[in-house]
Amino acid sequence: MKDHDKRLTSVLSILRDWDPIGVGPDSADDEYRRYAIKIVRKLDQGCDAYHLTEWLGNVRTNGMGLEPNPNADQAIALRLVVLRK
Fold it and tell me: Number of helices and strands (H, E) in the chain?
């Protein structure tokens, strides 16, 4: 498996835990794949936890129409930044 594919799999695993719309682990990969691809790209560009938290919050509120949950978004962002190159 290529490094990019491994990182994408890792990001998807973390997004299963984030799961703001509650699709559950069986559907999370399909639902969140497009976000995972963007996150891998952001990580490749050196994105930090602060900016990932902001981005996840924007996805949650503007993209999904949900209420803000900055604590949950920050917890996930902190897990994601360890995957940076």
Answer: 4, 0
Find out whether 1 and 45 touch, Cβ atoms under 8 Å.
no
Q: Name the amino acid, one letter, at 45.
A: Q
Q: Which run of H or of E encompasses 18?
A: helix 3-18
For the chain, the distance separating the N- and C-terminal CA atoms, rounded to the nearest angstrom, is 16
| pTM summary value | 0.91
pLDDT (tens digit per residue) in 50-64: 999 999 999 999 999
Domain ranges of the chain: 3-81
Q: Which of 62, 84, 6 is nearest to 73 (CA)?
A: 62
